[in-house]
Design goal:
The chain is of the alpha+beta class. It has helices spanning about 1-20, 30-35, 40-55, 70-95, 100-115, 120-135, 140-160, 165-185, 185-210, 240-245, and strands spanning about 25-30, 55-60, 65, 235, 255, 260-265, 270-285, 290, 295-300, 305-320.
């Protein structure tokens, strides 16, 4: 019964994290979760440990559990690895899928065609992939594909689902061809469609980020974090004093702040030089960075992040 409660809470929290009910870097208060799910703290903690293994949450000592960042550069590695596994998935599904499982896929496809709500649409798409994965009857392959799929699905909701007739109209067609290839036991065709479908997903994500199509035949590379593309943090550790004097750093305004944690958005570019303190900055959609006294740090305009000040900060800063 205890493990059953843990597993139920684990699944519920996982879906809420993927669908961004809980945002990246949001703290997960165990007391509040216990009250929400009407259970003791034990199954909550156990579920959080499982989510930490999935890298959907992280534990910060003496602070608690936080929802993990969505690191877009990591998506490249996830996508490349998943592409190799899709080939195995397609071949095993052809060999091991049952008529009953094909019937379930067809029922899901019918529901998908009728669904108008975009969020519900993608929930059904996720169920389709889950059923297809399970048809391989290979536990390790299923669990790995589910793990990778969770992170890609979370990315989809992070970049914000938007209506795209060309993209959404392709999904049911892809699934029709996948089902047809399963019925005909055509391994090559099944693998081809699965890989093409995965590539279309990444193309959709890139188009959502950049606002334009980049072409399906381009190398899959999100290029997140490039200075001319996305908001970023640039750190120069212990720069030469002559450089600082040339920049007139020591005549810039001074700002001080006690240890604290808060959200911040940079409406304009800022350069700062830390005289004292230690800071961890968690950019939205990027990896956390740390810097301290003696570091020169540039924050680009448009950056959304969380400042986590571990030691009192004193800095020179310049805007624009």
């Amino acid at each position: 019964m205890k493990n059953n409660k843990r597993n139920i809470i684990y699944e519920k929290l996982k879906r809420e994290i993927i669908f961004l009910t809980y945002k990246p870097n949001q703290i997960l208060n165990i007391k509040e979760l216990s009250k929400k799910y009407r259970v003791s703290s034990i199954p909550i903690r156990e579920a959080l440990i499982l989510l930490e293994v999935d890298k959907l949450v992280r534990l910060i000592p003496n602070k608690g559990y936080y929802v993990s960042d969505i690191s877009l550069p990591d998506v490249i590695d996830i996508f490349d690895f998943r592409m190799y596994l899709l080939e195995i998935c397609g071949k095993l599904a052809i060999e091991k899928i049952t008529e009953n499982e094909i019937d379930k896929l067809e029922l899901l496809l019918n529901d998908l065609k009728k669904e108008k709500n975009l969020y519900e649409f993608f929930k059904l798409e996720s169920k389709f992939h889950h059923l297809l994965n399970c048809s391989t009857k290979n536990y390790f392959l299923i669990s790995t594909l589910e793990y990778l799929g969770n992170h890609l699905e979370r990315l989809l909701f992070f970049v914000k689902i938007r209506n795209s007739d060309s993209y959404f109209s392709r999904i049911p067609k892809d699934f029709e061809y996948i089902i047809l290839s399963l019925k005909e036991k055509n391994k090559e065709e099944c693998v081809r469609i699965l890989k093409e479908h995965a590539t279309e997903f990444i193309e959709y994500v890139k188009e959502s980020i950049y606002g334009k199509s980049l072409g399906l035949n381009k190398k899959i590379n999100l290029e997140i974090g490039k200075e001319d593309k996305m908001p970023h943090v640039k750190i120069e550790h212990n720069p030469d004093r002559k450089k600082l004097e040339k920049m007139d750093v020591f005549n810039w305004q001074i700002w001080e702040k006690e240890p604290s944690r808060y959200d911040w958005t940079y409406d304009t570019k800022e350069i700062c030089y830390l005289l004292e303190g230690k800071v961890r900055v968690e950019p939205e959609g990027g990896k956390p960075v740390e810097f301290g006294a003696g570091d020169l740090v540039t924050f680009s305009a448009g950056l959304k992040c969380i400042w986590d000040i571990g030691q009192k900060v004193k800095k020179h800063y310049k805007l624009g």
